């Protein structure tokens, strides 16, 4: 069973548009409304795979109530922490050529009592869990050390923890030794303080995160594939994708696939790549079901192509 923690969840509205023209009336060709936030997406992908998950998240106001209803409709057990502020609403505009524009609201500010209740709820619901996946940005009121505290508490309880966040929160948590961290290329570059131009640059950055305390690093490199770096070595995984409909939640789907497959080693990386590739073929933030996966298209190798330029280098 996998518990997910989403400190800053959202109500996500995704509109598919032919193209985005600033200052003009744009008519959507499709729309979706989903419960959002990185941890929520991980739970949705786990549930789509038929596995057990509990989503711990603070919810408030009418948007929060709608998020709870949407989770229930998808068969996901939620452990809501009531907060005074309203849950944020986000908008994503997905163009026909695959370009995505996101507008993310800041979210409510959590009081000290709400923060502690969130931690206590995680403690209660993670008893007997295989993994805790902590994902996304921190809402106002939570210090960058909040994730670090959660990592320490998880290890005290004997539960493995995966972390998908960035910036000061990631750097603070590394010192507590999370079992897995899942940055993308931009987050890797930010963490090490330098640009990434090649897969080799990303590999070196991932190795540095391990040196700072991460047990393993699962790095998403967009269209170029994914890297897994742990104590036993490094692997590179990729899969061809002909058409990208939306990359919303693709990284979250990858993390879910990784944890579903055990959370370590090349087989888990292959599952992560298969889930990520399937997610980008789907509209909005739809999470892939097993029938959407194409494991045979995935390639995983210990021969990391260090000289390969990144399709989207990080300056």
Automatic annotation (TrEMBL):
This is 1-phosphofructokinase. PANTHER family: 1-PHOSPHOFRUCTOKINASE, 1-PHOSPHOFRUCTOKINASE-RELATED. Coiled coil: none annotated. Belongs to the carbohydrate kinase PfkB family. The lineage of its organism: Bacteria, Bacillati, Actinomycetota, Actinomycetes, Kitasatosporales. It comes from the Bacteria. GO terms for molecular function: 1-phosphofructokinase activity. CDD domains: FruK_PfkB_like. It is an enzyme of class 2 (transferase). Keywords: ATP-binding, Kinase, Nucleotide-binding, Transferase. It comes from Streptomyces tropicalis. Residues 16-291 form the Carbohydrate kinase PfkB domain. Its EC number is 2.7.1.56. Pfam families: PfkB.
């Amino acid at each position: 069973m996998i518990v997910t923690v989403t400190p800053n969840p959202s109500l996500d509205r995704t509109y598919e548009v032919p193209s985005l023209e600033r200052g003009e009336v744009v008519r959507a060709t499709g729309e979706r409304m989903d419960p959002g936030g990185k941890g929520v997406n991980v739970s949705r992908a786990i549930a789509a795979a038929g596995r057990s998950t509990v989503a711990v998240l603070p919810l408030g106001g009418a948007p929060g109530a709608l998020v709870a209803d949407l989770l229930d409709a998808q068969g996901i057990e939620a452990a809501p922490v009531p907060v005074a502020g309203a849950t944020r609403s986000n908008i994503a505009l997905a163009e026909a050529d695959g370009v995505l524009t996101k507008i993310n609201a800041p979210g409510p500010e959590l009081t000290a009592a709400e923060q502690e209740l969130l931690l206590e709820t995680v403690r209660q619901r993670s008893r007997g869990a295989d993994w805790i996946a902590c994902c996304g940005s921190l809402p106002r009121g939570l210090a960058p050390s909040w994730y670090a505290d959660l990592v320490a508490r998880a290890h005290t309880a004997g539960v493995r923890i995966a972390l998908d966040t960035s910036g000061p929160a990631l750097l603070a948590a590394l010192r507590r030794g999370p079992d897995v961290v899942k940055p993308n290329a931009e987050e890797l570059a930010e963490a090490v303080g330098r640009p990434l131009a090649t897969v080799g640059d990303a590999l070196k950055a991932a190795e540095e995160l391990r040196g700072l305390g991460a047990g393993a690093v699962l790095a998403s490199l967009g269209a170029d594939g994914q890297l897994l770096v742990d104590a036993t070595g490094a692997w590179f995984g990729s899969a061809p994708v002909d058409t990208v409909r939306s990359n919303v939640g693709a990284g979250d789907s990858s993390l879910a696939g990784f944890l579903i497959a055990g959370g370590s080693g090349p087989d888990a990386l292959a599952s992560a790549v298969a889930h990520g590739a399937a997610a980008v073929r789907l509209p909005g933030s739809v999470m892939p079901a097993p029938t959407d996966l194409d494991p045979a298209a995935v390639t995983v190798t210990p021969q990391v192509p260090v000289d390969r330029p990144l399709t989207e280098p990080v300056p």
